[in-house]
Amino acid sequence: MIVLAALLGVFGQESTTTVAAGRRAVLSVDAPSHLRGGLLFQARFEIHAKRRLVHPRLVLSSGWLESMTQNTLIPMPLSENSGPKGLSMSFEEVPAGDTLTIWSEWQVNPTNVARRSEGVTLFDGSTRVATAERTLTVFP
User: Fold this and answer.
1) pLDDT digits 0-9 by tens, 56-115
2) What is the distance between the alpha carbons of residues 63 and 86, in angstroms, rounded to a whole number?
3) Taking the CB of residue 30, how many other CB atoms lie within 10 A of it?
4) Model-level pTM?
């Protein structure tokens, strides 16, 4: 029964999209919400600026980093920093009406089994613009 469920994608890596809209921008996060240990997956972050974002900064909560390996990130951020609140990445200015798309590839640690928050917050400088709340479940 478990094998059949796995073949049908129940534990799988189907992508889900979470959208958070603020007055200055819309943040969209497209990534799997259910994974299995050892899988490779892709996450896409889209920032659509309603107003010009002078210093856009994306902060991925620590749930993105626990027993996960980030393999690639395109485009590369201007600066990157990690700490207790997660991974912070700063990008070039996004003019009003433009969209910045960030592609990221990840791998789940094979021994990672958990259910945790994977929030993503968009800032313009130190001003919070939008927060996308997500939950990730990792199966053995």
Assistant:
1) 999 999 999 999 999 999 999 999 999 888 999 999 999 999 999 999 999 999 888 889
2) 8
3) 15
4) 0.89
Residue type, 34: H
Residue 121's beta-bridge partner residues?
59, 131
The rounded distance, in Å, linking the Cα atoms of 28 and 45 is: 6
Reading the block at residue 81, the tokens are 């920093």
What would the two tokens of residue 131 be? 């927060």
Q: Residues 20-69: pLDDT tens digits?
A: 999 999 999 999 999 998 999 999 999 999 999 999 999 999 999 999 99
Beta bridge partners of 53: 94
Q: How far apart are CA 10 and CA 25, in angstroms?
A: 33
Tell me which residue of 41, 42, 40, 37 sits closest to 6, measured CA to CA: 37
Q: Which domains does the chain have, with CATH numbers?
A: 13-139 (2.60.40.10)
Go through the chain and tell me how many residues it has: 140
Q: Which amino acid is at 67?
A: S
